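Contributing new records

If you add data, match the layout below exactly. Sequence lines come first and carry their own label; structure lines follow with theirs. Keep one chain per record. Anything else will be rejected by the validation script.
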Amino acid sequence: MSVLRHQIAMAKDSGLRLSVLDQSPVPEGTAPAQALQNSIGLARRVDELGFTRFWMSEHHAMDLLACTAPEILLARIGAETSRIRIGSGGIMLPHYTPLKVAEVFRTLYGLYPERVDLGIGRAPGGGPMESLALRRSRKVAMEDDFPDQVTELLAFLEDGFPTGHPFLKVKAMPAPVPEERYAGPAVWMLGSSMWSSAAAVEFGLPYSFAHFFSPVKTRDAIEAYMRHFRPGIRLERPEATVAVGVICAETQEEAEYLAASVKLLQQRIRLGERKPVAAPEEAMRELKMRGEIPMEEGEWPRYFVGTPALVRERLEQMAGELGIGEVIVNTIVWDHEKRIRSYELLAREFGLVG
C-alpha cells in the first residue's frame, strides 16, 4: 500500500513540534475580507518562525469565521510561504464528491510538492440549515456515506481502484509521474469523537483531535488510536496530534485580558450566536452581564492562557501524557497583531527561532 510522506521540522530545544490551525476569525469592526488577509499574513509569519504546518478550517455562513473555502486560501498561502506544510483542517467531505476533492488537492500538491496535507472530517461546518444548503442531493433522505467517501477518495489519490471497478480508468488530475510510488497530499483523519479515532485506525491514517472544540474525549480518542493502530495499511507507526487553543502574552494578566474575547465567543456559540470576535473590553462587560455559563471541560482546558513559559509547560505535559510529538495551536483574539505576537512568543519559548 502507499506510504504517506511527511516533512518534519523539529523544534530546537523541545522534541515537541508546533503547528497552526487558522479559522480566519473576523474581529468586530472589521470586514470579513480583512480576516482572509490576516490569515495570509499569519501564514507568512509562522513560516518564518519555524512552525511545521499551517492548516485552514472550513466553516459556513458564520459572521464569526471567514474561511469557507480553505482550498482557495491554501493556493494563495502556498505561494506566500516557502517551507511550511499547508493543509485543510479540514475539508468537510460529506459536502463534496471524492473525485473533486482529489483533483483540488492533487492540484495543490502539483503547485507545492511535498508540502500539502488533506485533513478530512465529516462534521457539517455549520448549522442544520447550512448543511441542507450544502447537500449534494436533496431528492433523497440524507445518508451517512462518509466511510464510502473516504474509501473512494483514497482510491483516487492512490490509483487504488480494484480491477473491474467502474472508476478504474478515471484519473484524478494532475496525476503523478509513473515512477513515483506516491505523490500527493498526506491525508489526515480529523475529528472530536471516538468515531473519528476508530475511522483513523480503520483507514490507517494519521489522526488529529480537535481538543479546542470538544475537550472531553481527548485522552480516550488518542489512546484508542494508538492502542488499536495497525501498521502497514498506510503508515508503519501511528501519528497523532491534538489541536488546542493558546493565548500567549508577556504577562499572565495580559494573556487573560486577551482571552476574554474567546471566552465570550465560546459562550455565544453555545447559545447559537456566531457574531464576530468582540474586543476584550466589550467581552468582559458582556461576560459580567451574562454570568457564568457552564461549558463542558475535560482533563485539560480548551485554551491554554498565560506566559510563554507557562503555556509551554502545559503543552509539553499534555503531549507527554498523550504520547504525541506535535501540537496544533489555534489562537483567536480580537487584535490581529496580538494574535501574531502570541505565536511569536510561543515560537521563541520553544526554540523555533534563533
